[in-house]
Write the structure tokens for this entry.
Amino acid sequence: MTPQHDVTPATDWWRDAVIYQVYPRSFADGNGDGMGDLAGIRSRLPYLRDLGVDAVWLSPFYASPQADAGYDVADYRAIDPMFGTLPDAEAVIRDAHGLGLRIIVDLVPNHCSDQHAWFRRALAEGPGSTLRERFHFRKGRGENGEQPPNDWESLFGGPAWTRVPDGEWYLHLFAPEQPDFNWDHPAVRDEFRSVLRFWLDLGVDGFRVDVAHGLVKAPGLPDMGHGEQLRLLGNQVLPFFDQDGVHDIYRSWRTVLDEYAGDRIAVAEAWTPTVERTARYLRPDELHQAFNFHYLNTDWDATALREAIDTSLDAMRPVSAPTTWVLSNHDVVRHTTRLGGGLDRARAATLLMLALPGSAYLYQGEELGLPEVTDLPDEVRQDPSFFRDAGQEGLRDGCRVPLPWSGDAAPYGFGTGGSWLPQPADWAALTVEAQTGDPDSTLELYRTALSLRRTHPALGAGASVEWLDAPAGVVAFRRPGGLVCTVNTTAAPVRLAAPGRVLLSSRRVEPSDGDFALPGDTTVWFEE
């Protein structure tokens, strides 16, 4: 049965929303050039409606030289031709709303492209240009300014500074093609409030804020003072991340969001040392949600999972924000591979996540059980950090391989012109077409779980769980409204008393005489 959706003005829709991340270049190709685009996304929106998600988050599609897959934005109000046109974006928003789906777009405020009009003028005008004040230009250290201004490192490897021909250096925490904005400058703040209004006026329902923790740098740009290599998705204490000044920016953004009807939201990608620091971004006058990377990084271990869940819920409660849960995204190894237990463990982890109170994020393709592609040849890789001498492993391409939709061979219905990254030869059984209607498929497990999450009174929003006694290696909790979630994180079956009838299971279980054997790497939802 097709899930029923309705985009209503009711408040707080985001507190229990399931939000699906679309990585545009890898979702669906509408024009046959091998690259996903807005036309492809538009054609597949009914699939997302039928999957049962509430909102769709689109990774960047703005005009960009694509030095970092679109996270180097040259124009925040224009669509890159590789993805389509502004009318195409408007059509995606309009069609999504017609299907009952909300649209969240990526916003990249920490840095822009070196082809952005401001930066190009700053370079052309030279030292002393007022445009340079909108970035972090500095004189270098050393007798002739030949050394970077401080010891900051790029998260993609190497120094965070690049010297220009006139001798000054500019800051880029990521690739050299991504100069950091100076958020102490009022023109930068004014510009991004304008960008927010531009997209809100077009009807978007919110923003995912890239590097939300990075906008403000410590006064004076002090040295890091240590030699530990930066981690792209780490929680180190650093002079350019999670500075208290970011909160004034987000309070001003919240004022803009609240000007618009329909409960428009902002979601922080904020890597912070603790979940308590993350909660600061979600105070009532700031942002609405933040990604729970602490949970994503938790091992598949009952004690660790229970601690991460408690810590996450406890941190959000004082600021009355929903906890979010996420297992995969465009920057990390897909959880089918990362958790180390194959598809059974990935399915169990998904049902655990969807049973927790709050909002959940899905990454495209996880509903198909896609594994990480680990054997891409070097010559096809495009992750910019792969080409740096030091830094990250540069292997993010493995989770960005285009989706398989149908057919027995690549490009599996992705489009008519191949795919920008090669798809594995053994993905025929993982296509949407192959899995649709198969009750044992991962796709149908997701569809059933999301349908239950939408309709069952014990699933969705909330702020706590009631932990139940369970054997070692088993996580068990009750949600108000009559649902018990039981998870076996071990490899061996465990015999338990059944607390009610089986509502949904990540693997087949056969309760009998009031108890049952819970297989290893299995999650079961019981209705009491």
Notes: Confidence is low (pLDDT under 50) at residues 1-9. The longest strand covers residues 102-107. The radius of gyration is 23 Å.
